[in-house]
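Hey, can you fold this one?
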Amino acid sequence: MGSKQQEKSHQTMVELMDAAMELFARKGFRETSVAEITRHAGYAKGSFYRHWPSKDQLFLQIVERKLAQYRASRDERIATAGDLEGAMRIIWDFLQDMVADRNWAKVFLEFTVHAARDPELRRIMRLDQHRLSEDLFARLIRPFAPPGFPVEKLGALNTALFEGFMVHNALETGVLDLRDVREAAVALALDMVRRLAPTQAPISQPTGGPA
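Sure. Predicted structure:
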């Protein structure tokens, strides 16, 4: 009996999350209410609050679920990268998939701005499971970088490049293409290797996968 209830509860949660993402994509995060989400999913508002205390917490769980899907395929591929350039290109393939989902990218950007006004949400959004943080990027490329290479700095630069591009993309400026940003990011990484570790070659075979 307990197992059936848990299964039903999980199904309700998934249906509410799917309804929320459909409405967020259509109307935006701010303009979508909890009442609209539950009505669209065919549930009472109480069903929503049995799973999340707020719309913010619902969105954070959606972010975790979406990023987990993207990262599963990325982590399989990055373990096969032969050097830093290969690892960088695999990471940017993953980012390209995120940008290609235009509605999701816009909603994610909207929520990021919303979170910036709330200290607790700001703290949560800095965690690895909610974005490509500089720390996560650093962990992904560390096995392919020379000893002493500033992976944290390169991670922060790549995060800034990607999130800056998301703003341009949301505004539909048409000035930058993701390929431009991607190639700039790869060139920056290789230039940093040449400047900061001129006598060291990137590690060709990592001893273990990313954390």
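Residues 107 and 138 are 26 Å apart (CA to CA). Let me know if you want another pass with a different chain boundary.
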